[in-house]
Write a structure and sequence with these properties.
This protein is about 55% helix and about 15% strand. It is an alpha/beta fold and about 200 residues long. The termini are close together.
Length: about 200
């Protein structure tokens, strides 16, 4: 099975690309969705409460936003949160790979924002980066999530700049124009996958 890492930055359009791939019957493992699901796990919430206090341990959007504001302003706090979440996420990912291979899928997309930051590129055969300009990222993130400009910028600062990611990638999906242009790029990329995939 051929595994493609799908990465980008906040509001670069990675989720739209993942949705487009799913619509075509392709398997996509969404790390963000799995992280959100972990916040509903009582064991995870207990660990978060122990590390940061009960006010940060809710499974609701408000609690996630509050802990996000805390950890994206404090690299040490971010590491402590990731030490809670990432072991469970990695175990879930390995199970998903095994399950997808078992059903005979030829390709699996690993949709993960921090692919490079967490040294996960070694888990995939190729990397596609979804790109948008920083100004577009800021505008889109504010529109879609209600975050303030300062909140978005703190999240962007915690990620590797997209300009650095594109130099490491096997392919770049330029998502800074009309969606039809993005979809055309994706269709071309799918046709260029190695034979047998």
């Amino acid at each position: 099975m051929y595994i493609i890492g799908l990465t980008g930055g906040i509001a670069s359009g990675k989720s739209s690309v993942a949705a487009w791939l799913r619509e075509r019957g392709l398997d996509v493992y969404d790390a963000d969705r799995e992280i959100h699901a972990l916040y509903a796990d009582p064991a995870v919430r207990e660990l978060i409460a122990e590390q940061f206090g009960a006010r940060y341990a809710g499974a609701d959007t408000a609690s996630r936003r509050e802990i996000g504001n805390l950890v994206f302003a404090d690299p040490n706090a971010l590491r402590r949160l990731e030490n809670i979440l990432y072991p469970a996420l990695n175990a879930n990912w390995r199970a998903a790979v095994a399950e997808t291979a078992k059903k005979g899928a030829a390709v699996l997309f690993y949709d993960v924002p921090l692919l490079y930051e967490k040294n996960l590129a070694g888990n995939v055969d190729a990397v596609w980066v979804v790109y948008a300009t920083p100004a577009q990222q800021l505008r889109r993130a504010m529109e879609r999530s209600g975050l303030t400009a300062a909140e978005v910028k703190s999240r962007m600062a915690a990620q590797m700049p997209l300009d650095d990611k594109i130099w490491r990638a096997d392919a770049v999906v330029w998502n800074d124009g009309a969606w039809e242009e993005t979809a055309a790029q994706l269709a071309k990329l799918l046709t260029s996958l190695p034979s047998g995939v």
